[in-house]
Structures are given as C-alpha cells and as structure tokens.
Amino acid sequence: MDRLTAAEVFVDLAASGSFTATAERLEMSRAMVTRHIKTLEDWLGARLLNRTTRSVTLTDAGNQCLTYCRQLLSTREALEISLSERRRQLTGKLRISSSMSFAHARLAASLAQFIRLNPGVEIELDVSDRAVDLVAERVDLVIRIASSPDPLLIGKPLIKVNSQLVASPEYLKQYSAPQHPRDLRQHLCLGYRHFNRNLWHLSKGEQNESVAVNCQLVANEATVLLRAAQAGSGIAQLPDYLLAEALKDGSLQCLLPDWTPRVMTAYALYSSREHMPVALRALIDHLSQAFSG
To answer: Does the keyword Transcription apply (predicted)?
Structure first.
C-alpha cells in the first residue's frame, strides 16, 4: 500500500484518537484505516498504537514516528507546490517603456533574466522619456526616474538613484573647477529637460543650495548629456549608473564631491491593480528583487 497515504492516515488518527473519526474525515472505510496503520507498523517493525475499547493512544515508537510522518507530509506538500508553480508557467505579452539610459544600464539585463525564467512571456520595450498614456497606447508598465511618482498612476519604488556633477578634463582646463555650488552660475551646464533643467539642488549635511545654472544644451536623454560632457560641452548632473566607466577611464571627473544632488527614485508605474496580468505582477516583483540587491 502507499506509505505516504499510510503516514497521512496515521497523523490524522493521532490527532483524532478515533478510527471511525479518521475514516469519516479521510472518506475511507474503518477497515481501510486499520490496513494503513498495519502497513506502517509492518514497514517500521514496531507497534505504534495502544488500542482499548474507548481510546487510541500512541506508544513511544508512535510518538517518534509521528514527528517524522509530519515532516514527510510537509516535504511532500512543499514539493507539490513547487512542481505546481513550475507547471503554471507565465504567458502573455508585456509592453514596457523606459528611458534609454536606464534601460541600457540596469533594465535590459533584468528583463533578459526574467524571460529566461519565463519563456512563455514576450516583452516589447520602448526606450523613450516622453510622457506615455498607458491606456491609450496599451502600455503595461513604465519605468521612470523621479523625485515622486505620477499621482495618476500606481508607483512601486524599485531603486534609489544617486547622481554626481561631472565634467571632462578638457572643459576643466578651460574653466576652473567650481569650489562651491554658487560657482556653477559662471559655468556652462548641460540640462535634462524633465528634471528642473535650469535649477540644480545640492546638499551638504544640513546645508542646502538651489542654483540657477546656464544650460546652453538641453536634452531629454541622459546618455546624450553623458557624451556631450565627455566632449567638453560643460558640467552635467548624471546618475551614478551611467558614470562608472567614464570616471574609471578619466573621460569625466567628479566635481563638488562633498555636495550631493537630489536623490531620485526609479519607479515602476502602472495604471491599475484591478485585473492585473499575472505576468505583469511577476515582472514587477522580479524587478523589485533584482534591484534591491
């Protein structure tokens, strides 16, 4: 007979103390309950129960067996859940919008991992910083970096985004490096269209400075500002995730290192929690976990 079923019968009988009650609960005959217990006792070579006309109690061997039977059934349940989840593979197509810089530096690798884990899901990624109408354009998810999310959308924070002020060595040969945020007013700066392009906020401990800067070049994509800064066009305020290689190879240098630009957050934005596709929920959870590390 099935030893797992025998273990299940034994655990139930230990709780009920009655062959009749266990038979009713497990929808089998009292004789079948007796056969399962005998199977377990024959397998283990030990008597598990003390039986009287009024009660059923466990022997010492029965108490020891009960612990292991519970563990065995718990392991079976965990295995069944795991296999069931694997069988329920995610399917469907998701449309996502993200800035080019964030998609290139952080998002693409996480999306690649997600579709490897879920081969039934297709992802269409639009790289753009323009305002997206999720409903009209049938976009499932927008990844945006902001100080606060769009109040008309549901926003899940994914990762904090720190920035630095940088300029090329060529630019700094022509213009002395700023020593204080107020010195930025005398410099050529590179503005990002969506984030207060002409007003930069910096802090140092309890000190806060908001500086109106002169932006001869403004762009809506951070990677453009990165290349412009490397070409000597001016001082740029850029996210850390774009700067590692440029700072390492010396094409850009950090300015005012004691002063911190306003910290932003990358948000996953979607229109509604109602009737959310399972694949979308799974993707949001995947990105949240991927970026939390």
So the answer is: yes
Closest CA to 253 of 188, 170, 162: 170
Cα dihedral: 36, 37, 43, 46 (round 10) = -170
We report the CATH number of the domain holding residue 218 as 3.40.190.290
The model's pLDDT over 38-91, given as tens digits with 9 standing for 90+, comes to: 999 998 999 999 988 778 899 999 999 999 999 989 888 888 776 666 556 688
The kind and range of the H/E element at 76 are: helix 60-87
Q: Which strand (E) or helix (H) includes residue 36?
A: helix 30-44
Domain that holds residue 167: 163-262
Neighbours of 80 (CB within 10 A): 10
The average pLDDT across 218-246 equals 94
**For 70-147, where are the E strands, in sequence order?**
92-98, 121-127, 141-146
The answer to whether the CB of 167 falls within 8 A of the CB of 253 is: yes
pLDDT score at 1: 55
**Predicted structure pTM score:** 0.65
